[in-house]
Design brief:
Blueprint lengths: L11 H12 L5 H12 L14 H8 L3 H14 L1 H4 L15 H12 L11 H10 L8 H11 L5
């Protein structure tokens, strides 16, 4: 078996915080399991205290895969013990096409009378009107549909 690449050594305050998280009802099950994995893989405590266990032992104890244990130890090494139990923020999230003002204008257009010769607003007509009003430069039909569904508005 290869040697562990990332070794977890917790300080006393980190250990106390992780123990608190692992016993708390205010954290998700995933966070509690990650905290327990870190407590179990801590080399500063002996085996008799429940620390310094192998990946296989921790995986069977917490009913996760060995790769999960290795990933938790790696994140603890890279980000710190307390930060590694929480999900990382998404980095590549795009800004929404319609902000609050744009949504309000879309709903206002939708609630107004449809163009002459039409019985109701279509998504294509709504898109053209938003572009004409310079609310957005371009927008997809699905974005308009989802926004209207979210606001529970009717197109006619």
């Amino acid at each position: 078996m290869p040697a562990k690449k990332y070794i977890v050594k917790l300080s006393a305050p980190e250990r106390a915080s992780l123990e608190k998280v692992s016993q708390s009802n205010r954290h998700s099950m995933r966070e509690k399991t990650r905290a327990r994995i870190l407590l179990g893989s801590d080399i500063s405590t002996g085996r008799s205290a429940g620390g310094c266990a192998s990946d296989a032992e921790l995986a069977s104890r917490f009913k996760v895969s060995e790769q999960t244990v290795a990933n938790v130890r790696q994140r603890a090494h890279q980000r710190g013990a307390l930060e590694s139990i929480r999900r990382a923020a998404q980095r590549q999230r795009k800004a929404p096409k319609l902000n609050g003002r744009g949504e309000a204008q879309l709903v206002a257009v939708t609630c107004s009378a449809p163009p002459e010769g039409r019985a109701r607003w279509s998504l294509v007509l709504l898109r053209e009107r938003l572009i004409e009003m310079q609310v957005v430069e371009h927008i997809g039909l699905e974005t308009i549909r989802q926004t209207l569904k979210k606001t529970r508005s009717s197109r006619g």
